[in-house]
Amino acid sequence: MASLDQQPLSLRSFADDYRRVRLAEGQASTDPDFVRRLPFRDITGRNDAAWRVRAFHYLAIRLGLALMRASAPEAIRVLDLGAGNGWMARRLAGSFRVTALDADGGAVGLGALRDARVTRVVGDLEALPLRTGSFDAVIAAASLHYAVDLSAALGEAARVLRPGGLLIVADSPLYPDDAARQSAWQRTRAHYASFGAAHLAARYRGLTRAELDGAGLFRFVTVLPGLTSWRAPLRIWRRPNGGVRLPVLFGWRR
Prior knowledge:
Strand order of the largest sheet: 3-2-1-4-5-9-8
Order of helices and strands: HHHEHEEEHEEHEHEE
CATH topology: Rossmann fold
Number of domains: 1
Number of strands: 9
Strand content: 15-25%
Low-confidence stretches: 1-9, 227-242
Helix content: 25-40%
CATH superfamily: Vaccinia Virus protein VP39
Largest sheet: 7 strands, mixed
Mean pLDDT: 88
Radius of gyration: 17 Å
CATH architecture: 3-Layer(aba) Sandwich
Shape: globular
């Protein structure tokens, strides 16, 4: 696994402070059982609704990978991009050859992934230290909105995918326009500032469908929309402030 010391200072600083904030929020834990139970149970009991949504996302991702495998039985190479503590990589490792990449190689980041079946790589999603065409599918779950340069991140995802490979984007806020995204960014900055880490907002941005499509690298299809008619806790999928949705998008490399 690549050393965290080999990363640019800005990324290392982001990983350190992001880890601190996530621990304070209950989105991370030093308890090894935390990762083993995700996404179906949050043993901290602090973010149950959010993890129910992520469990639903996970099932949609499994379905997408199964459909890919049905059409291309040899398609087994999967990259979990922005894997965090690796809970999804561990879940997928029984069926696929999985690589988990994240900026945080520490004890509550990739260091929490204790599964020899998964290859762990510390790196930046805008400059992947991975070979061209080396994956059949890339999963960006709760990660693509941390790209400072979205075009670069999408370009890197396209580069490491084989022709016709699948990019799955999930659990990233999708806004109807840039104004709604900017308003949400201000709230995000205030949230991080309450932890003394306002600078984290520099690496946090919501997405718009227009910029995803405008990159011209993938043909995106929404497979799970906002599901606004579903009752709580899935109301988190669509919030009134800015109309943010948390869909699941399948993107085939052009």
